[in-house]
Amino acid sequence: MFQNKIIVITGASSGVGSELARLFASKGAQVVLLARNVEKLAELQRQINIEGGLADYYLFDLTDIDSIHLIVKKIISRFHRIDVLINCAGVGKFELFSEMDSGMIDQMFAVNVQGLIHCTQAVLSSMMQQKHGCVVNIASLAGIITTSKSVVYGATKHAVIGFSNGLRMEVAKKGIRVIVVNPGPIRTPFLKLADPSGHYLEKAGRFMLDARTVAEKVIRAIERNKREINLPWYMGMGAKLYQLMPGVFEKIFGRIINMK
């Protein structure tokens, strides 16, 4: 299914993004790696090429709108199309809202929401011309159940879910699919910024997902034309229960979900 497909991945230098790159490359895809860390991108490209895959990379800053459009134009000029865009880049900080620095608030919205939206828009015109494509937005279960110390992060992911749902309906008749992925906590370098104290990792470590597992689930969702996936399944069930009975859910599970 992915043989010779052009797969563009933001946030590809580590975590789920890098695992997705390796998996897609192993399936015969040409992966295009986008992130801010050139050294990590170059190393990942080297590893993929050694393993027999095809990878290219570009320095990419989601907070620079002009740069986003410029890089996307370069990718399309070189490869002539983009078959799949995976918006995987994200930033978060687990902290009480009343104590959070305004710069961090702005950064989370700039990367998680505005950057994702502008990147999608930059790619979309090409997909509409070719009359096919798939956009995968990595959101979070925090966008459904937002808990204390993740108030702003959850708000950004809630925005991603809403954006994805509306865009899906807007482009459905143009041959473009939109998939939203809502994982629970993942053991990745993301946590170094989000929770430098290590407190959350210590408490929630046993519930954390493996980045490789999440990447495999994302690829399966694309293959099976899923609309949305929640990971892991039991947290997904909790999210559905929360949507049906939020007050009851908070009373029963409040202490568990507020581990931060």
UniProtKB/TrEMBL annotation:
Enzyme Commission number, as recorded: 1.-.-.-
Domain of life of the source: Bacteria
Keyword field contains Cell division: no
InterPro entries per record: NAD(P)-bd_dom_sf, Sc_DH/Rdtase_CS, SDR_fam
Keyword DNA damage: no
Molecular functions (GO terms): oxidoreductase activity
Class of the enzyme per the UniProt entry, highest EC level: oxidoreductase
UniProtKB keywords: Oxidoreductase
Protein family according to the UniProt entry: Belongs to the short-chain dehydrogenases/reductases (SDR) family.
PANTHER family, A to Z: DEHYDROGENASE/REDUCTASE SDR FAMILY MEMBER 7B (PTHR44196), DEHYDROGENASE_REDUCTASE SDR FAMILY MEMBER 7B (PTHR44196:SF1)
The protein's name: SDR family NAD(P)-dependent oxidoreductase
Classification of source organism: Bacteria, Bacillati, Bacillota, Bacilli, Bacillales
